[in-house]
Amino acid sequence: MDEIPREQLTGALRRGAVKKHVAAIHVSGKLTLLQRKLSNVLLLNAYDTLISRPRHQIDARTLCLMIGYNSNDMETLKQSLRGLAETVAEWDMLDERGQQEWGVSSLLSYAKLKGGICEYAYSPALAEKLHDPKVFALINLNIQRRFTSGHALALYENCYRFVRTGSTGWWPLDLFRRLMGVEGSAYYETFKHLNAKIIKPAVAEVNKTSNILVTPEIRKQGRAVTEIRFRIAENPQLAILDLDDGEGVRHGAVYARLRALGVSDRLARQWLTAHGEEQVLEKLDYVESRKNVKSKLGYLTAALEGNFGPTSEETEELAPNPRAERLRRILDAVKARTPTQRDADKRLFLAQLADEGLRVDFDKHGWMSPLNNARIAAFWAEMSPGLFSGLDEAPTS
């Protein structure tokens, strides 16, 4: 299966969250979901050297994996990078002396792909704003990967930085349309259309997908809606996606081994909370015993998410794990599908799940859902006859 090379996940990339300045959130362009995710990952990758280096680099394959775009279609990546270079970020803020500062810059001053490497840069003025620790909002990359709508991700970004105050404050509708990237559209000038096509679907996805719950409220002048704000509360069902900085788990031996392997602090705590120390330790021992694994960090991720590990049949160090091989073949089959086909596949599979717990687990883990292991295998065996040819172990849930 695809793995993020460990050597690429150094420095800021291991954090799992990007501190994002309001100027990078308030953009005037109409960013797609892929472009929003791409912008966040590029910023995370560059953050430690935003001021000290004029250019930044990241492996293109790693970049695709981190935004959840498992494709070798470099043309789509090029198109997304082009969109960031053509998109304007604008800020209007007080400096440390209380003076008003307004500025405008393209999100990327340039980007290029060469030899499998993506190189890019920010303008000096924007880099300075992006690096200012006083005006950041944390964007959790584990959460952003779950979004399927650019409008929902935009709403999440603009609400999350107000989570401690409990409300965004009132936004004029013109500003809200701009934040959602639908300014200039005559259709969305009508609040009925804006509410039905943008607000309600975005709110529903934020509440289902992220670590916060948002509730819209409106103000009117006469019969016309003129302002909107969002009440914000933590989502207790998805609190694992945004753990507190509790010290307890950090003193454990398993946590220390995860950190030594290159797992970020946040992700290590998420895994230990979700899977328990015993299961994580079992997967760690299994992964560290494997030879010829290019990325142990990537392999550990797959082992935990795909719920595979050592079997009694493994008599040789390199003997294939049937469950792991089955998962690899499924993910390869998914990767070979077009984006439209992949969306249809997920909808078809979800339609077969009557149990809400199974649906939630599939929403969270996708085709690596541990609770749906046998059902997923059966689904893809029917979708792609012969996909599991040569595997002896029957899938079990």
From TrEMBL:
Xref: Pfam families: Rep3_C, Rep3_N
GO terms, molecular function: DNA-directed DNA polymerase activity
InterPro entries, per the entry: Initiator_Rep_WH1, WH-like_DNA-bd_sf, WH_DNA-bd_sf
Alphabetical list of Gene3D superfamilies matching this protein: Winged helix-like DNA-binding domain superfamily/Winged helix DNA-binding domain
SUPFAM superfamilies per UniProt: Winged helix' DNA-binding domain
UniProt entry keywords in alphabetical sequence: Plasmid
GO biological process: DNA replication initiation
Domain Initiator Rep protein WH1: start-end pairs: 18-159
Keyword Oxidoreductase: no
Parts of the chain that traverse the membrane: none
Family affiliation: Belongs to the initiator RepB protein family.
Full protein name: Replication initiation protein RepB
Organism in which the protein naturally occurs: Paracoccus aminophilus JCM 7686
